[in-house]
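Worked Example 4.2. Read the sequence first, then its structure tokens.
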Amino acid sequence: MIPRRALAALLLPAPGLAAEPGTRRAEGGTLVQLAAEPAVSLSLRGAARGRQQSVYEGLRLPGPPVALVAERWLVGWGREGDRGLFLAFDWQAEQLFLLLLIDGEPVYLAPSRHARWPEGLAEPFGRFAPGLARPPVFAD
């Protein structure tokens, strides 16, 4: 007979694998579709911290389809003039990077302004906000 704890461990998905099938399905879709994925929506709600309306509006701004970067990051953005939203989700580690542009100024929602962003996000971020006065610091 299998102990209950062992049975529960067998039935529950591994943490890093839980996000893969659903979240990777968002590749090629819209930011709204990516944000609707359960692993992303939980992180997004926590990161929005009082700026939910701006984030939800940013999800609907025009931008390219969500792309898979470095076989790890699902990246998408929307931008219209001096408003925008950049969203990157690491489907393996279930980590979110989220930045709003409001009146051309960056608002770092996840992680904070002083955290380093992965180097793999530098190129897509550069297409989102070329020449931004206070861009994230990228490093591995």
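Now turn to a second chain, presented in exactly the same format:
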Amino acid sequence: MQEHQIEVLLDRLTRIAIALESAGGVAQGGSAATPNNPYQSPDVPDGYDTVLGYFSKNMPGAFELMDDPITGTLRDGHWLTHQASRRGIGIIKVPAPEPLVEIGINELNAYPVSLLQERIR
């Protein structure tokens, strides 16, 4: 990088930091607060999870490799649904997390964690 490019970058980063401080996103002298994970569904019973919830808890870096986490996990959901049906394993419907509700998806399948572990290692 050239010196001018570094100065421009530093200026932009400084403006972002100031904007975060004024919005309450960073405490004075602190660090940015960790947001709640938007892909975790509410009210999922123990022993079950959704594909997005499981990824977000156990492999959050995987989302960075996907163009879109929702479509990027569809294949996993199809496999899990097929295997659950084939094996006679129950699937539970749970409320979708807020970002999905905003795009019209109100429910998600929750699968036994053991089946999720089998699919997503």
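Notes for the reader: Strands lie at 48-49, 92-95, 107-112. The first strand starts at residue 48 and ends at 49.
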